[in-house]
Amino acid sequence: ESYELFTKEEASILESLKRRAVSLVKGLNEIDGVTCNPSEGAMYAFPRVELSPAASEDAAANDQTPDTMYALSLLEETGICVVPASGFGQKEGRVGFRTTFLPPEDELNEAIVEFK
Predict the structure, then answer these.
(1) Which long-range contacts link 2-11 to residues 24+ away (Cβ below 8 Å)?
(2) Coil, helix or strand at residue 47
(3) Which of 31, 46, 92, 95 is the most exposed place for a label (fewest CB within 10 A)?
């Protein structure tokens, strides 16, 4: 009886994680200037952000990487916290961030709307 309950709960959690991963990536890809590959095997998504040359210049003028400036702006404007991709050894010139899809589905869906 406990094993059956365990397998049912496990399957439910895994299905929820799959739905959240798909929702997050789909939502990010609907934002102009943002592209994100499907999340495979991790609980994170690593979207790429295309910033204007002026935004990159502003970041440099403030002694920040463009993705740090983007992450701080996102936090200040929406309360959404992401991690700049520059801390993960990204390819030179790539601007992006890391985010997770671990929040509960309803909270994640609200955050996706805030991103847009």
Answers:
(1) none
(2) coil
(3) 92
